[in-house]
Design a protein that fits this description.
Layout (H helix, E strand, L loop, with lengths): L14 H10 L4 H19 L8 H15 L13 E5 L26 H8 L3 E6 L27 H9 L4 E6 L5 H7 L2 E3 L20 E6 L2 H11 L14 E5 L9 H16 L3 E5 L9
Parallel strand pairs: 1-2, 1-3, 6-7
Antiparallel strand pairs: 3-5, 4-5
Helix pairs in contact: 2-3
Length: 294
């Protein structure tokens, strides 16, 4: 299939603005869902961010009608009322199969729905579907392409979730990070990736890669959306104070950074130079010098 001169799949889908408009009734849930499905139908053959689901539109319309009936009063609607969200195919989500990007039967991964999903449902979000992951959230890539250039990788392992948000299929999608599986595809696809501190959001209901490192994370198109999701998902969330002084950034020195490709390292150093020119302090920190041994 050629993608030359094909229309771009990229569309705006800011989570905070979308959720606010839905809560206020500025657009109906049914119209919102149908528009999202239209966009998905137009571009998913190229992007391949989601796992196939026969009858997706009909299910979402039914879910939207049920949610609207449950919350007729705009003043009582939860913070993510009606916003579409997608989950990496290592999350157990009631009503969906889990395969962890593998050819194994779903029965191999049967488990109760986890905290991340139940908290999202409680916040009023609708589930668009499951997203493509590399096999077992490791290296073996799935079919997802980069929405900005189909010839390039979307990054992994949360490839489908990053691509789905970049396309605007959904304003929120969930991934997981053991090493760089949220922040890397976020950077490749040009979206915001947020990884809370380890253990800040339970990882129950997720096929594990490393129980001592795995962390729930999510993607949005902007920082305001990432903060809104955090306020709905993280217990005891406090909005950050107004930013005063610029931050001090710690950067690993020597051995750790030398693992990067020279082109990537050059781009990284250029970014640091630009930040320093704007007044950000950068400190080289001697950590992970034994990275090769690790």
């Amino acid at each position: 299939m050629t993608t030359e001169n094909a229309p771009s799949p990229i569309a705006a889908a800011p989570l905070a603005a979308t959720a606010a408009a839905l809560r206020r009734g500025e657009m109906t849930l049914e119209a919102y869902v149908n528009a999202a499905c239209d966009h998905l139908d137009a571009h998913e053959a190229q992007v391949r961010a989601l796992l196939p689901e026969p009858g997706r539109r009909a299910r979402l319309v039914a879910d939207a009608r049920a949610l609207a009936t449950r919350f007729p009063d705009p003043s009582r609607r939860p913070s993510l009322y009606g916003a579409l969200a997608a989950f990496k195919d290592i999350y157990a989500v009631d009503g969906f199969e889990t395969r962890a990007g593998s050819a194994l039967p779903p029965t191999a991964f049967a488990m109760p729905e986890g905290s991340a999903v139940t908290r999202l449902r409680a916040a009023g979000a609708l589930i668009l579907g499951k997203t493509v992951t590399t096999e077992f959230a490791y290296f073996d890539a799935g079919a997802t392409t980069n929405p900005h250039d189909a010839a390039r990788t979307p990054g992994g392992s949360s490839s489908g979730s990053a691509a789905a948000v970049a396309c605007g299929y959904a304003p929120l999608a969930f991934g997981s990070q053991t090493v760089g599986s949220v922040l890397r595809p976020a950077a490749y696809c040009g979206v915001v990736g947020f990884k809370p501190s380890y253990g800040r959001l339970p990882t129950d209901g997720i096929v594990p890669y490393s129980l001592s490192v795995d962390t729930v994370g999510w993607f949005t198109q902007d920082v305001a959306g990432a903060r809104l999701a955090a306020s709905a998902l993280l217990e005891g969330w406090r909005e950050p104070a107004a930013q005063g002084a610029l931050p001090v950034l710690g950067v690993p020195a020597a051995a750790y950074l030398q693992q990067a490709h020279p082109a990537a390292l050059a781009a990284f150093e250029e970014t640091l130079t630009q930040l320093q020119a704007r007044g950000v302090q950068v400190r080289r920190v001697a950590i992970l010098d034994d990275i090769e041994q690790i």
